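Project outcomes to date are best conveyed with an example. Our students and postdoctoral researchers have been running inverse folding experiments weekly, and each run begins with a structure described purely in tokens. The record below, which covers 196 residues, was selected by the lab manager from last quarter's runs and is presented without edits.
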């Protein structure tokens, strides 16, 4: 893969005022500057008829353009190493599929839903099949209204409604590389020597 010609956009959705927003924004902006990726933060108000976690789906649909790959990160997700590049570390893990997500992990010793993807970090190709998947996902709260509020709302819709329709589109990576809650807690709590 030619890094010079591959355009990567990193997208985050941040609405409201959470203490960690400024940290996440700074860490991820510096990472993107280093690797020459676009870094987009969307702060539009969410729909009020479903949980705020759902807002990532229409935001992704709106921003899935003018790039080869879009990497969505939840507001609390950060790049823990600025040395590692998306082209070398994540794109190869896609194994020819259009979307990459990590297995859902509560922490290293607790797996909530083994084999099911976590929607906090999503790498996707900019192609029609991905847009179709996200359009269907965005409508899933109309198909099963329990996914509007029941935890985890948009993930429950992904697992129960979207995955059965798109079984060959998403690569679920089994390691917590892309989803490590304890790592973020270590950074915030200062128990690791992380430099911002």
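After processing, the design step wrote out the following sequence:
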């Amino acid at each position: 893969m030619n890094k010079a010609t591959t355009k990567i956009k990193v997208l985050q959705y941040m609405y409201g005022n959470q203490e960690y927003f400024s940290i996440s924004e700074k860490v991820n902006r510096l990472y993107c500057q280093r690797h020459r990726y676009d870094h987009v933060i969307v702060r539009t108000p969410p729909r009020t008829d479903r949980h705020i976690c759902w807002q990532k789906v229409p935001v992704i649909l709106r921003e899935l353009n003018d790039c080869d790959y879009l990497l969505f990160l939840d507001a609390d997700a950060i790049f823990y190493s600025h040395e590692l590049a998306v082209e070398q570390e994540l794109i190869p893990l896609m194994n020819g599929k259009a979307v990459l997500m990590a297995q859902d992990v509560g922490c290293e010793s607790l797996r909530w839903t083994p084999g099911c993807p976590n929607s906090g970090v999503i790498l996707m190709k900019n192609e029609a099949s991905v847009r179709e998947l996200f359009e269907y996902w965005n409508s899933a709260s109309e198909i099963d209204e329990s996914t509007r509020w029941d935890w985890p709302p948009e993930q429950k819709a992904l697992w129960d409604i979207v995955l059965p329709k798109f079984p060959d589109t998403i690569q679920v990576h089994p390691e917590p590389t892309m989803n490590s809650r304890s790592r973020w807690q270590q950074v915030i709590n200062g128990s690791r020597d992380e430099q911002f």
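The longest strand covers residues 117-125. The chain has a mean pLDDT of 87. The training component of this project remains on track.
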